[in-house]
Amino acid sequence: MRFVEVAVDLPDNSYRTFTYSVPERGQIEVGDLVWVPFRNRILQAIVFSTSPSTRPSQTREIISKIFEKPLITKQQITLASW
Asked: So what's the pLDDT on residue 16?
């Protein structure tokens, strides 16, 4: 199972990412805009990084990609992380 770190579209200044699992059928890349379950809502998020490592079983799964191709380039992700 693969995991990704996403930045969720929230109206706060926390500047943190959240871990989600990638569905077996899904091809998720850095820069993809995705739908994720967050608390009791479904929100948009940008994938900041991918990781094959294991995470707690409480990790929720990405619902789907919004666009076929990444919305943001890896260079833009690097700049945003800086």
From this structure: 84
